[in-house]
Structure formats: structure tokens, C-alpha cells
Specification:
Elements lengths: L3 E8 L6 H4 L10 H5 L10 H4 L5 E4 L11 H8 L4 E4 L4 H10 L3 E3 L12 E5 L4 E4 L2 E5 L5 H9 L2 H11 L4
Parallel strand pairs: 1-2, 2-3, 3-4
Antiparallel strand pairs: 1-5, 5-6, 6-7
Family: Belongs to the LeuD family. LeuD type 2 subfamily.
Subunit structure: Heterodimer of LeuC and LeuD.
Protein name: 3-isopropylmalate dehydratase small subunit
Length: 169
Amino acid sequence: MQKLLSGNAFVFGKNVDTDQIYPGRFVEFTDVEDVAKYAMFGADPEFTCKVKKGDFIVAGTNFGCGSSREHAAITLKAVGIGAIIAESFARIFYRNAINLGIPLIVCPNISKLIQTGDRLSLDLHSGEIRLEKSLIATAEPMSEYVLNILESGGIKPLIKQQLATGNRA
């Protein structure tokens, strides 16, 4: 996994819940390609027409609140979101996304510093967020354990790797 990411920003507000990320009326879909068609549908029905692999979601506080619906994280991974940068995350969404291999970055006031369409770069190791070439914020650094999960592609690939090598650290 790359530790230096770049992409365009899509900015959303506070309290973006799992029903906005992936509306409950679509939970009947189980194929990842079908699930991907409805990413952020409750907040922006045109989102999947605009987003490109590696782009970022930027949001205010409490991103991913609501139900424990894992589809919310699955749909964002399926459309290729590079990372989600928010002022805070709902606990269950945070674990679901990290376990699927989606970088989640906590950065106070970030939603006030970035606009939709801004070209960002993000250093996962240092937490530096840049707009064009200028440093605009430094997020909370990710722990080595979380970086290890992300580098493995998620918690399941990490566990499989550990079991195969006998390394359970």
C-alpha cells in the first residue's frame, strides 16, 4: 500500500450516517459491483459518476454514524476511495473501514479547510495533508498496528498472512 496518496476531495458535512453512505433500501445487493453503484447515494446520488479511484472523502464530525451496516464501508472501498479524512468518526464505522483496508484520518477542522474538487495529497505516515504543494493540516498519526492492517489490505488478509507465517505479533 502506498503511504503517499493523492486525489480530489469530495466534501460532506457533519453526521453523515450510514444510510447516506449506503441507503438501507439497497442492502439486498451482495455483489460488490452492485454495492459500488450506490456509494454516497443518500448524500449525493451523482457521486459515483464523479468519483475516481484514489479520491478522498472529507467530512465534519461523526462520519459513519447510524447503523453498524458494513455495506457503508464496503461501498466506499468498492468505488476506490483513497482515504476518508474527517473531524471524527463513529466507532463502528471506523473499525469496519479500517478492517476493510480503508485509511481513515482524523483531522480537526479539516472540513473548513478544503472544498470539493481540491487536489489533495496525504502522507499516511506523518499525517500531513497538502493542498497542491502547501501544507494545510497535520492529522493525528495512525498507529503502526493500523498501518499494518492497511498495508495488508485489511484485517482478514493480515490474519491470513500471520497464520501462514506463524507470526501473530
